[in-house]
Design brief:
By secondary structure, the protein is of the alpha/beta class. It has helices at residues 13-23, 33-42, 55-70, 84-87; strands at 2-6, 27-29, 75-80. It has one domain (2-78). Helices cover 39% and strands 13% of the residues. It starts with a strand and ends in an 18-residue tail after the last helix.
Length: 105
């Protein structure tokens, strides 16, 4: 299960995610901004104002989410200040189960 917390910066998504993780046994918080910070460091020579504008961020977050699920982290809480009008439906891949070869978990 993916619990997606969306909202503007500073509204309490991270605090809410931490509280949900505390009361939901087996859940994990996956802060997708960490992926963005990694890309900002790696791609600092490129001109961009927000990592959400980077196609690799929109591609990596669903991949990491799916890999975490296939590794047994079935409940993930994602506090993401994502603007859908900027990235289209790419991030919605998170809400769909990842296609995996049979026998893989």
């Amino acid at each position: 299960m993916i619990v997606w917390l969306n909202g503007t910066f500073g509204v309490g998504k991270s605090a809410t995610a931490a509280e949900l993780a505390r009361i939901m046994p087996g859940s994990r918080v996956f802060d997708a901004e960490i992926v963005g910070y990694m890309l900002m460091t790696m791609l600092q020579d490129l001109a961009f104002s927000d990592f959400q504008d980077l196609p690799p961020w929109r591609a990596l977050v669903p991949v990491v989410t799916a890999d975490l699920q296939s590794s047994g982290f079935d409940v993930q809480i994602l506090p993401v200040p994502y603007e859908f009008q900027r990235g289209g439906n790419e991030m919605m891949r998170i809400s769909r189960p990842a296609a995996r070869p049979s026998g893989m978990r």
